[in-house]
Amino acid sequence: GTTAYQWTSPNWQAKAMGLAGNLYAVFGTANDKVVASGDQNNRMYRFGTMWANDNNTPNFGSTQTGMWGTGMNFFSVSSAGGDCLVITDAAVNKVSCGTSGSLETVWGADTSNVFAAGYETNTGIVSKYNGTMWKKETIPAVGKLWSVWAAGSKDVWVGGENATLLRYDGKNWTQHTAVGIGGTETIKDIW
Length: 191
Prior knowledge:
- By secondary structure, the protein is mainly β.
- The chain contains no helices and 18 strands.
- 0% of the residues lie in helices and 53% in strands.
């Protein structure tokens, strides 16, 4: 939808002014450091005291579906075409995600260990940003991946269809069994 909500104790407040189109991802590192993305004109929106269209957003032809950030840096991934954005206060830069597949989610441990998960033709993929560029990771053969979470650069978890769980230890990706989750379940979020 086109409305974002902010918790201002004791209530949620609608913050729709300045927003348009469908929003799919939002992430903030402070009250005035919030970024949202979606499909409307393929633009990023920033929140200071109100939402504003970021006119510095480069043109890209895909919906931005995932958002993560730390400090003044944000990372956005796309649902098609391999476009990723690296966002700072000074600029919004479009970079290759290291894949032509669909990346659905992104999370990181720090600005040199950012992970995105998704799929290429129904096969799971993970791409990692090392502080300079995105690179597709070598992972076990699995179906579509929908979630990622990192406790640190050596403790990253990815989840997906058919109860898929992958863990990164800083060097290798290994598949794990999700105890208590049915084998046909899709892990859409992980924490």
